[in-house]
């Protein structure tokens, strides 16, 4: 805000200096219309008209870019909310998968065959 004020004051001082140095009377004719005034006034009017035309020509693109920016911000916000919801759903599904996953069956440890089995089956015989 302060920078804009400083630029405006410097511009105003420049305009006053320009108009004091260029006070020669000139005649401007456009089609059937004629205008007499100082050179500074004619140049300032031409510059003001140019700024006005440039502003009018650029305003549709500025409005469109603001609309697009607003639409994209709302889309980003919506997508971030969707992302949070999907992350919650992933956590829920992982918990359910963990709950439903089959548990490995622990095998019963092999017992020592004992003396009876050794004598009946013999040390080199297999259980077939």
Reconstruct the topology from this structure:
Elements: H1 2-21, E1 25-30, E2 33-38, H2 39-100, H3 114-121
Antiparallel strand pairs: 1-2
Helix pairs in contact: 1-2
Describe this structure in words.
By secondary structure, the chain is mainly alpha-helical. Helices cover 70% and strands 9% of the residues. It contains three helices and two strands. It has a two-stranded antiparallel ribbon. A hairpin with a 2-residue loop joins strand 1 and strand 2. Helix 1 (2-21) packs antiparallel against helix 2. It is rod-shaped and about 135 Å long. The termini are far apart.
Number of helices: 3
- Count of distinct strands: 2
List the strand order in the largest sheet.
1-2
Model regions low in confidence, pLDDT < 50 over at least 5 residues:
none
Binned, the helix content reads: over 70%
Q: Report mean pLDDT, rounded to a whole number.
A: 83
Per the principal axes of the C-alpha atoms, what is the gross shape?
rod-shaped
Distance between the termini: 97 Å
Radius of gyration, in Å, reads 45 Å
* Sheet/helix structural class: mainly alpha
């Amino acid at each position: 805000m302060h920078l804009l004020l400083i630029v405006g004051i410097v511009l105003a001082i420049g305009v006053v200096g320009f108009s004091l140095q260029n006070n020669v009377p000139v005649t401007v004719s456009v089609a059937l219309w004629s205008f007499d005034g100082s050179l500074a006034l004619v140049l300032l009017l031409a510059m003001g008209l140019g700024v006005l035309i440039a502003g009018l020509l650029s305003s549709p693109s500025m409005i469109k870019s603001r609309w697009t920016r607003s639409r994209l911000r709302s889309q980003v916000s919506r997508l971030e909310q969707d992302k949070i919801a999907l992350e919650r759903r992933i956590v829920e599904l992982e918990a359910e998968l963990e709950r439903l996953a089959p548990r490995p069956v622990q095998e019963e440890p092999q017992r020592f065959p004992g003396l009876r089995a050794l004598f009946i089956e013999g040390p080199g015989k297999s259980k077939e």
